[in-house]
């Protein structure tokens, strides 16, 4: 493949392997060559809140096939201490994390209590069933209302169940609201949901006693984070631990938390037993012991003028972070700052409380607080438009940050602790594109025609800005082999985003090699020991930039070595399809494989007699074979560390039809305009958008975590947890791109991975409200809930009390 690849719809190179069933996931590790592998199972609490009085494992110890059982009493040293608080924050005054195995108390259904290792998973689960635990039951706290009431406490030492309170102010919002010509108040709710990756969590570990070394395979979004945690908890040097992330069947945020208890317990068991040990999470375990998100309640006060221009905005909200806070305050901080979207409210006050409940902990889930913030802001914009009798797009337009105002400082502190400064964008242009794409101006005529046919339709619009590419860094290593093949390693992990394709495009463009000659490895600490991870729409910005810089270094070295060999000036050389030649003189050339041979003064002659006889190349007399400040080999390594996040943006619009009898909601048209700066591969970006929209539809219309008052999750299976099928996703999603390049990185790119899901709750609430003429203030919304909403707002007939 030749020519410029940046911006080209290159087919994904990884797809054939997956489509042919040749993917290799954690549960596939050990299928070949590990016949002595043992399997683990976990005893999980059936209660939401209880003290552990006693754990009796006597019935397990003599069970044939069982090799070991651990409870917290069996853990020692760092393993017996709470798991790390990954992202501390000054406002998180009462942060709490779980133990690898519960100590003294359980705080949600599904919390790990005991860990069993046996010959196979069947025996391990049978053993788990024989463990007897005596509990002293405590009153559970379920939901934000119960947490705020603070009649009962999740943790005895956390007053009012408040883990954190954070306030940020720009200007004087209360005074501006009080003085505004018009004022509104809204109460808006989003319920809990969760990602459901096809592959649950899983970990395999092998201890090599001869090498005093641990190998761990785990389904994670941060292999280097797991490596560091395992090393610390097990008292090992970092260099003694290798973490390999094979294919990952979806992450969506739940696998960014590290370490999960099993990521410590499995390696501990492998070292203790001298055997390879595997744990694979089942689906019910994922429901009750992995992470959830989304659950928040918001109170909005807004003041505005006759044009709908924001004069003051005040938002109080309450965030349900579950029983523990391993990921700190990232989700509510993102909500509080990204809520502003593409607008400039002039005066803004935001206060949130992050609350403990006896439910599964919260960590970021695709969108990570932004869907809640977008929902709050966009519902506010719709309410202003309705109050003034104005077009909803017009009200948004008068509040936009203008293209000539970038960079635009919102005056807030973002999730990375740096200023919330938007780097680039053109929101008016995006609005015009989305209106054209969905047929906004023609919709009133369409609505009248549908009404005449007895059909009810509505249209919704939602705008968002997404902070992407947060630091602190990512690195890359580009190595040109003597075969001419190019091996690329970066430390972040891959969960289906198409990294192998887009990163190869960047290397082929910068280095001048053939796209087909580039091989990309991610998530292997043996190849790239320092990395951060895949989350926050950061892969293309962070690793893409690092790979570009590393390829540039490799190219500079290749040109320098080739120039010596060709007796030419490096500036006169070019690399095309892996061949270095003198510009205008293609006959004077040398391929990259040969350049790689020349880069190493220690070469090898292969023949039948010697097999591998070493040859030493003296080079020029009087010069060292390896020049000063250089290394042997043809490779480049670099790291990219941004000064702050980049800010992508977009707008979604949807037309829905609501059934007059069943209240079923049907999508007639869905449109997206997205700006992620320069596009590396438009096809892959559009695939990310399609997936995000599908996930957003699920979150807006189907998916929720339904707890009862005792803390039991009532829908912890795919029989009960509703997800959209392909029949619920629109056949065609209309997509248009806007490219406003970021000035913050060498490629001018911004992230795209979460964009599709961010505005979903907002855009569907708007469309359903437009169709029904009823206020939509809680999401997700099901047909039964819409039916009840209709009944609640129905005008009583004459004589009806």
Automatic annotation (TrEMBL):
Residues 615-634 are annotated as: Disordered. The keyword Oxidoreductase applies. GO terms for molecular function: iron ion binding; oxidoreductase activity. The keyword Methyltransferase does not apply. Residues 20-139 form the Aldehyde oxidase/xanthine dehydrogenase a/b hammerhead domain. It comes from the Bacteria. Keywords: Molybdenum, Oxidoreductase. PANTHER family: ALDEHYDE OXIDASE 1-RELATED (PTHR11908:SF132), XANTHINE DEHYDROGENASE (PTHR11908). This is Xanthine dehydrogenase family protein. It comes from Nocardioides luti. The lineage of its organism: Bacteria, Bacillati, Actinomycetota, Actinomycetes, Propionibacteriales.
């Amino acid at each position: 493949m030749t020519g410029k690849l940046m911006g080209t719809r290159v087919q994904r190179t990884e797809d054939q392997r997956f489509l042919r069933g040749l993917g290799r996931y954690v549960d596939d590790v050990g299928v070949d060559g590990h016949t002595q592998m043992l399997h683990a199972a976990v005893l999980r609490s059936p209660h939401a809140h209880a003290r552990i009085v006693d754990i009796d494992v006597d019935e397990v110890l003599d069970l044939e096939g069982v090799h070991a059982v651990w409870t917290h009493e069996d853990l020692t040293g760092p393993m017996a201490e709470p798991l790390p608080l990954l992202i501390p924050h000054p406002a998180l005054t009462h942060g709490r994390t779980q133990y690898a195995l519960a100590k003294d108390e359980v705080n949600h259904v599904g919390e790990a209590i005991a860990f069993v290792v046996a010959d196979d998973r069947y025996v391990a689960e049978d053993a788990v069933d024989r463990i007897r635990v005596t509990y002293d039951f405590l009153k559970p706290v379920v939901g934000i209302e119960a947490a705020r009431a603070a009649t009962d406490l999740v943790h005895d030492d956390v007053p009012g169940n408040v883990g954190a309170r954070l306030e940020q102010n720009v200007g004087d919002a209360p005074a501006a609201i009080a003085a505004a010509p018009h004022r509104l108040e809204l109460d808006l709710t989003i319920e809990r949901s969760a990602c459901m990756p096809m592959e649950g969590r899983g970990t395999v570990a092998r201890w090599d006693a001869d090498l005093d070394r641990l190998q761990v395979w785990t389904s994670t979004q941060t292999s280097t984070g797991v490596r560091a945690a395992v090393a610390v908890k097990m008292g090992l040097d970092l260099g003694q631990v290798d973490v390999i992330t094979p294919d990952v069947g979806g992450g969506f945020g739940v696998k960014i938390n590290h370490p999960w208890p099993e990521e410590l317990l499995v390696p501990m068991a492998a070292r203790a037993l001298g055997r390879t040990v595997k744990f694979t999470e089942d689906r019910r375990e994922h429901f009750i012991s992995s992470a959830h998100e989304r659950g928040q309640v918001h109170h909005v006060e807004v003041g505005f003028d006759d044009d709908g221009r924001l004069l003051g905005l005040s938002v109080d909200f309450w965030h349900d972070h579950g029983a523990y806070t391993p990921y700190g305050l990232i989700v509510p901080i993102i909500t509080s700052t990204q809520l502003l979207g593409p607008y400039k409210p002039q005066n803004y006050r935001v206060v949130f409380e992050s609350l403990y409940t006896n439910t599964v902990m919260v960590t970021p889930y695709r969108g990570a607080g932004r869907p809640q913030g977008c929902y709050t802001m966009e519902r506010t914009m719709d309410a202003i438009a309705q109050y003034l009798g104005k077009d909803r797009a017009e009200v948004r337009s008068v509040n936009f940050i203008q293209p000539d105002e970038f960079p635009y400082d919102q005056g807030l502190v973002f999730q990375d602790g740096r200023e919330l400064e938007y780097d680039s964008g053109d929101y008016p242009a995006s609005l015009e594109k989305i209106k054209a794409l969905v047929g906004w101006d023609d919709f009133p005529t369409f609505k009248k025609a549908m009404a005449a046919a007895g059909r009810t339709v509505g249209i919704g619009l939602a705008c968002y800005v997404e902070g992407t590419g947060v630091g602190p860094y990512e690195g890359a290593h580009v190595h040109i082999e003597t075969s001419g093949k190019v091996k690329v390693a970066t430390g972040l992990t891959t969960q289906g985003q198409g990294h192998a394709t887009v990163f190869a495009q960047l290397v082929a463009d910068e280095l001048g090699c053939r796209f087909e000659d580039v091989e990309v490895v991610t998530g292997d600490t043996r190849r790239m020991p320092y990395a951060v991870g895949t989350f926050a729409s950061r892969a293309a910005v962070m690793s893409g930039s690092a790979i570009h810089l590393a390829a540039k270094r490799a190219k500079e070295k290749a040109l320098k070595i080739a120039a010596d060999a060709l007796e030419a000036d490096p500036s006169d050389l070019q690399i095309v399809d892996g061949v270095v030649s003198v510009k205008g003189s293609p006959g004077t050339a040398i391929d990259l494989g040969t350049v790689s041979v020349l880069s190493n003064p220690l070469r090898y002659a292969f023949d039948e007699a010697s097999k591998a006889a070493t040859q030493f190349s003296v080079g020029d007399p009087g010069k060292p074979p390896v020049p000063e400040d250089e290394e042997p080999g043809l490779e480049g390594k670099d790291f990219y560390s941004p000064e702050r996040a980049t800010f992508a943006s977009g707008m979604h619009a949807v037309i829905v039809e609501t059934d007059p009898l069943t209240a079923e909601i049907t999508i007639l048209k869905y449109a997206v305009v997205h700006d992620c700066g320069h596009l590396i591969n438009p096809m892959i970006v559009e695939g990310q958008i399609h997936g995000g929209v599908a996930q957003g539809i699920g979150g807006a219309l189907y998916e929720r975590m339904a707890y009862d008052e005792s803390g039991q999750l009532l829908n912890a299976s795919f029989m009960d947890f509703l997800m959209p099928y392909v029949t619920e996703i629109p056949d065609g999603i209309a997509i248009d791109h806007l490219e406003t390049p970021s000035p913050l990185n060498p490629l001018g790119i911004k992230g795209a991975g979460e964009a599709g899901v961010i505005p979903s709750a907002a855009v569907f609430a708007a469309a359903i409200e437009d169709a029904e003429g009823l206020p939509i203030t809680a999401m997700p919304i099901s047909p039964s809930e819409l039916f009840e909403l209709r009944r609640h707002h129905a005008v009583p007939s004459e004589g009806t009390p």
